[in-house]
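FORM 12-B: Structure-to-Sequence Request
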């Protein structure tokens, strides 16, 4: 999201362009969903935090699930976009691995704790949520698989397994790093994990630089 939850909400009765109002509502909802989870979050609280009436909130989102999905899909798009940008940022494969790892660390370290909705959702039983959460992984894996297939001369199945490993390693270590209160500087953490990944990928397969 481009508008952070810390932005001061416009008061009741203040008219905003539809896109600005939507961003405001999403920012307020982000705070509430992250703090309370889906089930304990209330539309009343979201409207109050945004400084709008409930009818205004329902003009933009017909229900809590639709609001949650709008946020979740935007966060998934953000993560996948970060990974694709990382992979496309250089033709040097060692730097690609580092950039891909950094994409996950930057995502979990972002404002608003968006990663919690993607990786720690309490609504996995909802098919739409499960599909969106799975897309965060599968689309990231797809982006990396294409590069490994092209550069390492592997068939797609083996390249995909390597990509799954890199995504899993990056995601799990990034969340652990954050949970450990960032005791290792982010640049050092990214370097450690990307070097670990590169020694496996770069050492075992004839990647072309």
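FORM 12-B RESPONSE
SEQUENCE OUT:
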């Amino acid at each position: 999201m481009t508008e952070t939850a810390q932005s001061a909400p416009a008061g009741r009765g203040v008219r905003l362009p539809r896109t600005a109002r939507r961003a405001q509502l999403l920012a307020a909802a982000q705070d509430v969903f992250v703090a309370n989870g889906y089930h304990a979050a209330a539309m009343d609280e979201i409207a109050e935090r945004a400084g709008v009436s409930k009818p205004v909130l329902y003009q933009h989102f017909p229900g809590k699930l639709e609001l949650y999905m709008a946020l979740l899909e935007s966060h998934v798009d953000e993560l996948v976009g970060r990974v694709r940008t990382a992979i496309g940022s250089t033709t040097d494969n060692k730097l690609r691995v580092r950039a891909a790892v950094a994409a996950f660390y930057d995502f979990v370290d972002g404002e608003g704790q968006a990663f919690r909705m993607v990786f720690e959702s309490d609504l996995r039983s909802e098919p739409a949520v499960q599909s969106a959460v799975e897309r965060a992984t599968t689309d990231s894996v797809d982006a990396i698989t294409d590069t490994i297939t092209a550069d390492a001369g592997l068939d797609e199945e083996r390249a995909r397994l390597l990509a799954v490993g890199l995504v899993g390693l990056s995601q799990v270590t990034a969340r652990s790093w954050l949970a450990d209160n960032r005791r290792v500087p982010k640049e050092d953490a990214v370097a450690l994990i990307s070097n670990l990944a590169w020694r496996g990928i770069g050492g075992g397969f004839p990647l072309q630089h």
